[in-house]
Amino acid sequence: MIGLTVATILASSQAYTNVFAGQERIGFKLDIYQPSLFDEQKHDNFKGNVDDNSGTTSLEVSCSAGKSIAWGMGRVDETCSVTGHGLIKNPNNPSQTAERVGYQGGFKIQAKDDGYTDASTIKANYVRVGGAAAESSSFSGHAMMMPEDPSPTAKALGAALVRKLHEQASGAEAVQFDEQIDSIRFENFTVPHVGLGNTESCSWTGDFIYAYANDSWQGAFDITCGKQKYRLEGNMPLRPVDGSSQQQTYSVNLIVPGAGNGDPFAAADPFATVDGIVGTLHLENSGRKTEDDTYERVKVTGDLVGTNLPLEVVRGYGQIMLVFARTFFGA
Question: Could you tell me the pTM of the whole model?
Answer without folding.
Answer: 0.89
